[in-house]
Predict the 3D structure of the following.
Amino acid sequence: MTATSLVPRPALEPDSTIGILGGGQLGRMLALAAARLGFKCHVFSPSPDSPAFDIVHRVTCADYGDTQALDRFAADVDVVTYEFENVPADTATFLAARVPVLPDPAILATTQDRLVEKNFVAGLGIRTAAFADVASPAHLQAAIERIGRPAVLKTRRFGYDGKGQVTIKNGTDPDAAWREVGGQPCILEAFVPFEREASVVAARGHDGSVECFDVTENEHRDHILKTSRVPAALSDADAAQARRIAETIAQKFGYVGVLAVEMFALRAGELLVNEIAPRVHNSGHWTLDGASVSQFEEHIRAIAGWPLAKPIRHGRVEMTNLIGREVEDYRRYLTMPGVAVHLYGKAAVRPGRKMGHVTRVFEK
Amino acid sequence: MTATSLVPRPALEPDSTIGILGGGQLGRMLALAAARLGFKCHVFSPSPDSPAFDIVHRVTCADYGDTQALDRFAADVDVVTYEFENVPADTATFLAARVPVLPDPAILATTQDRLVEKNFVAGLGIRTAAFADVASPAHLQAAIERIGRPAVLKTRRFGYDGKGQVTIKNGTDPDAAWREVGGQPCILEAFVPFEREASVVAARGHDGSVECFDVTENEHRDHILKTSRVPAALSDADAAQARRIAETIAQKFGYVGVLAVEMFALRAGELLVNEIAPRVHNSGHWTLDGASVSQFEEHIRAIAGWPLAKPIRHGRVEMTNLIGREVEDYRRYLTMPGVAVHLYGKAAVRPGRKMGHVTRVFEK
């Protein structure tokens, strides 16, 4: 899996074209960062109202299985990257045969499956919550006995923002829980009585160099990230440990680009890895206004074969997502000193949909 | 000329479309700022390789006199703005009859003509270098006698980056100088033995509020801006005076958007206005990385009828233009701590062409 990073690749020239799979706000912010560096972008997305379409000149609106469209896309770009981890394996394989795809799609096989991911992390000697493979209702019964209650049953694949998971408390009927997640292959994870949730956004370059942004503390609401604060209220030792964990994961993957590692910080000062996102991450949005370089630019630098920048934080930072109708609050934020407003250009407001975010930098 | 600003206009919704006349780096950076706020942009430019085309989905490549193209452009956008001051008057008039154009094109009549501009500034009681109207070789002779040597002969219209001007020293033949500027209507300005050049970038909103960025000190090379430093090495009193001058000009114009006022700071602590740029300005590029809000976002906020933001500077800042082949140095800057690299996506490198810039923020 590390082969990709060992092949020296010439750095892209500034007038090169970067292909981005996915047209949501992450693709949009990646393309904006690429534009600052002189790159052109071509966004590929099946959704005609993709927010990223509005800010690039070349777009392909087609299904991820449309090999003709993928072929033309591959021919037009110098490198392909993606804004989300659920890129279909066939799409990634098809493209990788034609043009460099970074980060290496082989990594997706690990991060698309919670069980494989947890085994990978545990195999690095990094702690996670106790977990068990749940392939059937019978497995679930045994897993609950081993792990205890409360525990969380999660589908192995395609879960995000709390979708595809159910908490098994005292009194929860395992069969009902199994039905609720759709009877798919699952993982059961021990419920972690964490004190705080934290994440590390890390970039790794072609040359194996790693730059970590400061550890971010995250608050979720209805399983969706609501607020990130930097720096996280961790001891220096814990913060250093969190960064080491992210760096270890990036190195073991032979990763090229930005990834995020979500962690639980326990009372005892222990860190457990919750999950890995092989992409730019919502908990790194504060870097756009709060640091000398953003996670989006670091990702573009990495996949272009350019050197990473050393991030310097401007001060204490707080990022708040505008979810659903909260986006209507943007006017209020526009007048708050030190606050930057970001709107994603999404036409339709839906409950739970990330419509924008605001960042407040408390200057040193 | 102030009528525009007195008409209350509803603020644009975030999914509105902003039309930008001109597709150079200023249009490009305006469009990137608009994208952060959720706006769509449509760029109109006669040049097929306009850098701003690459980062917007809707473009019109047509002559500024193409009324059919202008008509379609006007119908597609909610407001029109421009990246340069030499928008043909007919173009502005044609568009203004169809869609709001901001800043008010009437202001261009002042800023497109050095003589009218100087008279406007002087009429506000703001000091300029001594100047004289030069309509013929005979006028030139008289003007030289009045103003003395050295002096600078400048065409009244369409000069930028030192184009259309010649210095009249001891021994310079006035007739030769007159021929050198093409025998056009000119202005003769006394040569100012300035200690430093400074500029103020100021934004004025619909509501008459003004926000000035910190005074910037500028160094030119071959008449092209090479380096800007913030804050300028001026006394607090002089800096406050510079900001007052910019604010006065913005208010008297009934301006909506960002303008820049270039000034000479004399040894005696006196400030003379050199010229007004009715647009975002190269000496404000540092705001992208060095402040809580950029000049580009302030301009977009203003023309959208949104409130201005109060700019907070992150520290001492230095911006350096990458001109012509200097752009090849970008690799060196990529590895310098605290340095942000901006490349404009221009394919052809030409001597004197602004290809990008780098900003270094020295954190507080």
Observations:
- Confidence is low (pLDDT under 50) at residues 1-7 of chain A.
- Chain A touches chain B through 47 residues (CB under 8 Å).
- DSSP finds twelve helices and 17 strands in chain A.
